[in-house]
Amino acid sequence: MGRIFLAPSLTFMALIALFPVFYAIGMSLYNIRGFHRDFVGVDNYVDALTDPSFWNAAKNTLIFTVASVSLEFVIGMAFALIMHQAFVGRGLTRAVILVPWVIPTAVAAQVWRYMFDHNPGFVNAVLGTEINWLRDPAWAMVGIISADVWKTAPFVALLLLAGLQTIPRDYYEAAKMDGAGVVQRFWSVTLPLLRPAIVVALLFRTVDALRMFDFAYVFAGYSNSLATLSVYAQRFLVAEPQLGYANALSTVTFVIVMLVGLAFISRMGRQMVGDVGRKEKR
Amino acid sequence: MSVLPWHRRHAGRASGAALAALALTLMTACGEPPGEESDAEGESAGLADDPQFVWAVTGADRQIHEDVARLWNENNPEQQVEVFFLAPTADEQRQAMFQDLQSQAGEFDVLGLDVIWTGEFADFGYIESLEDMRGEIEGVSLPGAIDSAQWQQELYALPYSSNGAFLYYRTDLIDEPPTTWDELYETGMEAAEEEGIAPFVGQGDQYEGFVVTYLEMFWSAGGELFDDAQENSTFLEGDAAQTALDFMVEGQENGFFAEGFDSMVEDDARALFQSGEAVYMRNWPYAIPLLEGEEGEESEVAGNFDVAPLPTFTGEGTTSALGGLNNAVSSLSENKDLAREFVLWAATDAEAQDILAGHSLPPTMLSAYDDADDPNFEMLGEILAEADARPPVPGYNSLSLVIQDNLHPAFLGQQDPESALEAVDNAANDALEQD
Hints:
The complex is a heterodimer of chains A (282) and B (435). With 282 residues, chain A is mostly helical. Chain A has helices at 2-27, 43-49, 52-84, 90-97, 99-102, 105-116, 123-127, 137-165, 169-177, 182-210, 214-220, 229-239, 243-281, and strands spanning 30-33, 36-39.
């Protein structure tokens, strides 16, 4: 009986989620140039894994992900702790802090690009530097990481704040009674109890950062200097149309993102995610 | 003069791209043809009650293409054309046409192709050979435009519109426009130092515009990308590639290019020149009315600038990269005869080509430049007659991306020039390959 009721949603899921995935994997086995289509098996995957530009894109993606997620976590945590204190205007602060996150990424990327640009931009003037922010690859990476941190640290803060609010005050009072200082209370009470929220925040951010497209594309187009895995796949979908190769690249990206996601859940959070599940049932 | 397509194409390129990427992902997943509600970009003009075929063309300079279609419909009431306006950006146009063809939808009969796409569309089997119509356009259309419409000596499209570069210079600072790049460099540096402004602005961002900037110097040093049969790269033959790159690297080191040149597109350059911040500018003709302060534009240089052909390294002649559109017949068209007739008409009908000229979109018909009363327009005709087509080989876009990825860092001193030029030579050979 249950299965019958589940059938429509399962079919729906299969159609909208699974079909495109398998269709893309199927296409990745062909060499497609316009109306010419040859079956080439796993050649596209071999090409991808031996393509220096692909590894360059993987490296860019990794640097971006590690740097932006760590910074977002630290800053987000600081925001969350501040917002968790009771003070006048807390509700307003929470709303305001979300503003960067609400702005569409492509728009935010344009704004940041203009800030860094030599002519209308003002970043060098403010910092008193002479940095080529857009066309020096290392500094451009710093630029897109800053932009992403600005945009998504508030989101991390909100997730962590929600976690903080589920921690009962009793624990802090008990810890205080036992003579634990502020720092010790943070390490021994807040962090362990916040773990489910932290795992969720890190998981979301990491998976998101691994797929990042907008900032890299707006700052540097298809240039290898900033290209992430998504930008590199898009390059072969649109700029140099080789649909088979583009689908192989997308599939590799998909697998990487999925593996990282699974690793997160199994290594750091299975127990915690399970806990959350059980709590919700109660 | 109206704003030309080149300018608009780049103005909105980045913001739309991310959305387009999303839309593309969705559309490829569902296999929906453009023209359905899923494609927010494109739109039919609604010009015909009973259209017999569809012309897909850029949404930039809408009015011009609409007027051309109206003229056809007046002359051929039984065989009316409907215009389908694509997005104004080049990448999105190509994407929309690819989707129409790759998904076998075949909604479009006539395709308005950017001059660099001919080889790619031909190689993909997307467009019909028009070789038998060569006789009709030879001696009638700009030779560069015909070059841009053929791949491996076979004609796949017919010329429709064109575009070429001017050297803008400040008449209050420079008496005679330079005929060599070295002269331009010296006079520019000198005047710039006196005035405290930049010697040269133009298209220096890492995009197709940079490729054009480089290729113009490369051609003007006597270089050719491919041999006549389009079978081998001749990029490194002679010293043109080296000369052009050396000039740019040296210029960058010595402050010949304005600060921020490396992230400058058409309109950034125009804005700087217009505010009197530069001695020279390489740009398309669209900037003239803006610099003259027409239509309420504020211009510091109104009355103090003029245009000339771009210089060369030898002082002989001029060169310009050729822009514009060619019309091709979709291989999925169910009305190929009519589509061919229309393509030929758009290339060779004096009245149709005059519509372009009337809106200051450079036409491809030679005769349109003959009786021009505007000296700039006449000069444009002369420039276009000598202009070089970027070779429309199947892998042109890949080649362009490799040029951007190697020569741009080399220009900025971030990469070894030698290896950068070699990478371009390899990419040029790859661009000829057909799998």
